Amino acid sequence: MLEKYRIYENIEEKDLKKLLTTLQSSTHFYKTDQTIIYSLGNRDIIGIIEQGTANLMRFDFDGKRTIIEEMSTGDIFSDMFISTNSSELSVIATTDCKVTFIEYNELIRECQTNNKTAPILLDNLIKLISEKLVKRNQRIELLTKRSIRAKLLHYFETESKKLNSKSFNLKYSYTDLADYLSVDRSAMMREIKNLKDDKLITDVNKKITILY
User: Fold this and answer.
1) Domain span at 153
2) Same domain, yes or no, for 132 and 103?
3) What is the pTM of this model?
4) Closest CA to 144 of 74, 136, 63
5) How many folded domains does the chain comprise?
6) Rounded distance, CA 52 to CA 9, Å?
7) 1, part of any domain
8) 26 CB neighbour count, 10 Å cutoff
9) CATH code at 34?
């Protein structure tokens, strides 16, 4: 039985199975930390995470990495909605993953036939891309903060608002958090200590509480 992820909304299971077969979709399994796609550029593909979680990562020439986006079950990725040089981006599994791939051009061709299911899938895809663009703008707002303190406070406030709580558990290791904020880990740890000394936050076993 196929899961009803948002990209599959309003499509009957039998119609979805038929469409995925027509589009010559392929499904692959990946282990934690395995590379799903090494270079996202120059591929007209759509990846659908059927199970697990993954990160969209950017690796600089000096090996420095930045977490561009976190993705979870039901999420999608593609070079079609990446504004930066997508050849620098990789998709890395953060847990065991099951990923289904379909070709965008095949989907467009199928929409030009009498297939009634393909346009629904395309419409769902466009809606998800629009949401991703909003999240990408929010991500840009974080990365353009000028100081490590400003980035940390912005991130903590965002997580707090998501949960409607002043306290929340960090979902990242400190190393991954530094990569997500695109800052040096040691400098970040010093700033977290400063935030605690200034009584702006508490940090107990990676449980952050905002005090202001």
Assistant:
1) 148-210
2) yes
3) 0.76
4) 136
5) 2
6) 19
7) no
8) 12
9) 2.60.120.10
Residue 45: both structure tokens together: 């593909």
* Three-class DSSP category at 141: helix
Each residue's pLDDT tens digit, 96-116: 999 999 999 999 999 999 899
Angle at 106 between CA 100 and CA 91, to 5 degrees: 35
Phi then psi for residue 79, to 5 deg, are -75, -10
One-letter amino acid identity for 72?
A: S
pLDDT tens for 31-67 read 999 999 887 665 688 999 999 999 998 887 776 788 8
The alpha carbon dihedral of 179, 182, 186, 190 has a sign of: negative
DSSP state of 71: E
Tokens of 24: 């010559």
Please report which helix (H) or strand (E) contains residue 140, including its range: helix 118-143
DSSP string, 161-174: HHHTSSEEE-SS-H
